[in-house]
């Protein structure tokens, strides 16, 4: 199925470029994601009930016949949060690429939900788009807050009987300034609900071409008020995908934070501590070679099959060491060596966690 949560204004059958109330939609059978008329407005309760029915009917049980299902075979409910884009139909086209490339078919990873917001449709508008991102962060926080409360409830249920654990793992793929939206939302949620840490809300977070400062996680393992604290503390693992060929983020760095590079263009700042559950992958060798502007969204082009293979491996919960051994991570040795520089936290393999009840 295709799913949409958006705070765009919907007027006269068109999703516009202004803010509206938060609404929930499902795609009609046989419809096109790029055709607004093919989306059906539903209540939040009906959206939740339909999603849970799909999960219960099609996802494998976490525990079956007394044995746990391997993490690689478990299914996800994944939010896709877009960033800079050209128009609503272009946003939905990219969502379709992600949903079809990772979540459809017999070997699909589950269900993907588009979280859509009225980002600017032109490059110059994008460069000053943070006010829209902050406003959207509030709406995303509301969505994630409901998910958090549900997770907490189901965690108690699963403690009494593991067979009743929710079948879905939760994850997020955020692109460009969608990562700023995510940062804002999870910081608010972390501050309001999750101190001390009670659950990991997200199993895997993929920060793709992230338009955020590359020292976002500079507080390392310390609990304070750092920009990336909500992200790192409420996620099991975070992977930043970047390339130095991204000219969109090259322009963004000078206009948003003088003297600080973008995570999606330069990778993590390894002169500061980095939490153990955060790492980065240089995707330059994985991406088709296009001009620097197009590179910004090339991660999601169907032709970028090596990037999709990496994202699939990450969502399947494969350990970093396995991803490296299987050749899904290019130049892994050099990045690991950089992580061993003075003052940096080494990149070490992480164990596969137990499933998070939903």
Automatic annotation (TrEMBL):
It comes from the Bacteria. Pfam families: DUF900 (PF05990). Residues 348-358 have a biased composition (Pro residues). Residues 336-358 are annotated as: Disordered. InterPro entries: AB_hydrolase_fold (IPR029058), DUF900_hydrolase (IPR010297). Transmembrane segments: none annotated. This is Alpha/beta hydrolase. It comes from Terriglobus roseus. The lineage of its organism: Bacteria, Pseudomonadati, Acidobacteriota, Terriglobia, Terriglobales.
């Amino acid at each position: 199925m295709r799913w949409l949560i958006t705070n765009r204004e919907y007027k006269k059958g068109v999703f516009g470029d202004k803010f509206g109330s938060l609404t929930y939609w499902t795609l009609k059978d046989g419809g096109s994601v790029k055709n607004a008329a093919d989306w059906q407005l539903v209540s939040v309760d009906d959206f939740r009930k339909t999603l849970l029915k799909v999960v219960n009917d099609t996802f494998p049980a976490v525990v079956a016949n007394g044995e746990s299902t391997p993490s690689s075979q478990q299914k996800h409910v994944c939010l896709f949060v877009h960033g800079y884009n050209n128009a609503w139909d272009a946003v939905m086209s990219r969502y379709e690429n992600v949903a079809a490339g990772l979540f459809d078919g017999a070997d699909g990873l589950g269900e993907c939900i588009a979280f859509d917001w009225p980002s600017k449709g032109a490059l110059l508008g994008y460069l000053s788009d943070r006010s829209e991102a902050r406003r959207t962060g509030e709406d995303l926080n509301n969505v994630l807050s409901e998910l958090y409360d549900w997770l907490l409830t189901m965690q108690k249920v699963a403690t009494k009987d593991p067979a009743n654990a929710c079948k879905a793992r939760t994850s997020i793929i955020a692109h460009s300034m969608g990562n700023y939206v995510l940062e804002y939302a999870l910081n608010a949620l972390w501050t309001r609900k999750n101190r001390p840490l009670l659950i990991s809300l997200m199993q895997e977070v993929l920060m793709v071409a992230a338009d955020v400062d590359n020292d976002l996680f500079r507080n390392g393992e310390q609990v304070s008020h750092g920009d990336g604290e909500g992200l790192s503390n409420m996620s099991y693992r975070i992977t930043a995908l970047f390339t130095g060929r991204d000219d969109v983020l090259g322009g963004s760095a000078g206009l948003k934070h003088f003297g600080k590079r973008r995570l999606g263009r330069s990778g993590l700042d390894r002169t500061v501590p980095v939490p153990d559950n955060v790492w980065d992958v240089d995707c330059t060798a994985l991406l088709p070679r296009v001009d620097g502007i197009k590179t910004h969204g090339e991660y999601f082009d169907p032709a970028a099959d090596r990037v999709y293979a990496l994202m699939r491996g990450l969502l399947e919960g494969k350990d970093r060491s396995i991803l490296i051994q299987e050749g899904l991570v290019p130049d892994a040795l050099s990045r690991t060596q950089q992580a061993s520089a003075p003052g940096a936290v080494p990149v070490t393999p992480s164990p596969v966690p137990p499933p998070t009840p939903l």
